[in-house]
Amino acid sequence: MPYLTGLTGIERSIKGTSFGFDFWLGSIDDPNSLFQRKARLEVSGIRRGSGSIIKSRVNMKLEQISPSDTLSPGYVCVVEFGTPRTRVVDKMQDVEILHREAMELVDQAFLARQRGDTTVALELTKAAFSVERAAADLVADLFGLEPTRSVLHRSAATLAVECSELRSAEKLIGRALAGNPPDDIANELRDLLLEKIYSRRRLGTKQTILASISSI
To answer: Which of 115, 127, 133, 183 is least crowded, fewest Cβ atoms below 10 Å from its Cβ?
Structure first.
């Protein structure tokens, strides 16, 4: 773990709790923070097994540590003793992969828009929103993971607005503000809510009224 993450085991987790992991990890690079609980580690062993069995055990352990996701980042280490081989998974890695995928879709949408292909651009933006929302969902309960948590929610909300998914954008902004976002990001979230969402709602209501009047 020190080689891969710069973290080392500092104490065992309390047994008999619902935390679902084995060890607390602390930094080896900063002596002042060595005994701070910076991450969680769950370790599991398999006497002999294939790659699919190892993957299944990893997924099971990732689910097992979920109840304590609000505490800190989490790692799962599965050791297969037959080969031998070890797989270490950072639970936040899924978030990073999803975010990168969303940003690639955003870039593709931008290029499609430049070509004048608005239909393809909208479909790509909708796909980007779906992926970025999934990333935001993964960190929704990690209130200490700032500014990552609020940045992902802001990004997903912005994409929701571009897709005219205003209710989804409202929910994402509300969830972000319910945490502890940095002041600048909190202000950007409020601006997005007021300037983009509420203004579109007012415009839509006005257009509906005008259409009703003109049909009389």
So the answer is: 183
Write the CA distances from 32 to 8, 25, 26, 35, integer angstroms. Answer: 14, 14, 10, 8
Instruction: Give 2-33 as a DSSP string.
Output: HHHHSEEEEEEPPTTSS---SEEEEESS-GGG
C-alpha neighbours within 13 Å on the C-beta side of residue 131:
19
Do 17 and 40 form a contact (C-beta atoms < 8 A)? Answer: no
User: Does residue 12 surpass a pLDDT of 60?
Assistant: yes
Evaluate whether 35 touches 18 at the Cβ level (below 8 Å): no
pLDDT higher than 80, residue 5: no
Burial class of residue 150 (count of CB atoms within 10 Å of its CB; 0-12, 13-18, 19+): buried
